[in-house]
């Protein structure tokens, strides 16, 4: 398996990964609208100097993806001015449980460190126990829980 930066030629398969993410998240988020949803501007991640979008290939087949985006802290009381936000973490179902998510997070964290970014964050649904465990295994720890009420 190899990791590499995504290119515009990868956008078709990456858009199917995006819909896979939406499908996986629907049971955890009743606020999502029906139909096709686009969370990401994947082309922007490919072109931006403040982002990297990587893919994992196995025998010339793209099997996984993830991105890191440098964001401003927006809070002057934080110890860091910017942080790397990770997202678009997707592994094809038949490749799950083989440590590929860890390969992706390690690569994205390394990219962030190479840009002198010391804080890395991501969002995961608290009820998504397998994803929470995977991120904890990669060294992440819970930080803040967003709660909602539909009056």
UniProtKB/TrEMBL annotation:
PROSITE patterns, sorted: GNAT
Keyword terms of this UniProt record: Acyltransferase, Transferase
Q: Which residues form the N-acetyltransferase domain?
A: 1-151
An example Gene Ontology molecular-function term? acyltransferase activity, transferring groups other than amino-acyl groups
User: Could you tell me what this protein is called?
Assistant: GNAT family N-acetyltransferase
Write down the species: Chryseobacterium pennae
